[in-house]
Amino acid sequence: MSVATRKKISIFDWINYGLLSLISLICLAPFLYVFSVSFTDPDVYIPLQFNLFPQKWSLSAYSYILSTGSFINALKSTTFITVVGTALNLIVSFSMAYALTKKAMPGRNAMMGFIIFTLVFNAGIVPSYLLVKQLGLLNSYWALIWPVLTSAWSLIIIKSFLESMPSELEDAAKIDGCSDIGVFLRIVIPLSMPAIATFTLFFAVSHWNTYFNAVIYLSDSKKWTLQVLVKSLVIDSDNAGMAGASGDEKSIPQETIRMASIVLAMLPILVVYPFLQKHFAKGVMLGSVKG
């Protein structure tokens, strides 16, 4: 490769990096604005003024939000739904996908047909609501967990990942006296950690951001999820949803309260994601290639 070619590639790389950096900064600006407003002292806050960094730092908005009974209830509800829902998602998805990898399982092809069918056709909102109602799950956290225990997309990806494992490992374990459950727990699960980490992130983010189903199935405001509470703060004109606060909330601008609630709602995912990022791409790619 000539010097001129290396120079052209170098110039292209600099231009490429510069454009990507500019796009990244443009995407990052709204997040910086939200953080800035949430940490701005109420005494110096000026409405509709764009600042990427607070003129004067303050935790007043966070202290107010964390002192409200509504936010604490919403945090407990979302945490319960996320932890329990993610655990059940992993158990059901991986165990069902593992069973579908066995060609000797009766009705395997028919079950796969039903699973693929749901990728194309959906019953809709009204039948789903009627089903949840008939099961007696209305105004219950389980209405946000049981209907979404797994999905066709998750099953197909996990099934493909499990099929990529060497069958000789299972055969050797069975020769040593392992049962099917023993093979699943001692061989398959330890080797599936990249996929488990990936789908843990998928399921956890999905449950943490639950909004639409919570609006439909939860009529009691004490059981609202964080996303529903944040919507009531950002969209509604008052802070009626933030009942039970201590102190004088009138001295705190509503805009700083809204921004602080947004930060608190997305903070857990931002904290957890870096620890699972190294497994993210690996888990998805392993599930997409067999061999």
UniProtKB/TrEMBL annotation:
Pfam families: BPD_transp_1 (PF00528). It comes from Paenibacillus silvestris. PANTHER family: ABC TRANSPORTER PERMEASE PROTEIN MG189-RELATED-RELATED, POLYGALACTURONAN_RHAMNOGALACTURONAN TRANSPORT SYSTEM PERMEASE PROTEIN YTCP. GO terms for biological process: transmembrane transport. The chain crosses the membrane at residues 14-35, 80-100, 112-132, 144-162, 183-205, 257-276. CDD domains: TM_PBP2 (cd06261). The lineage of its organism: Bacteria, Bacillati, Bacillota, Bacilli, Bacillales. GO terms for cellular component: plasma membrane. It is found in: Cell membrane. This is ABC transporter permease subunit. It is a multi-pass membrane protein. Its main location: membrane. PROSITE patterns: ABC_TM1. Belongs to the binding-protein-dependent transport system permease family. Residues 75-275 form the ABC transmembrane type-1 domain. Keywords: Cell membrane, Membrane, Transmembrane, Transmembrane helix, Transport.
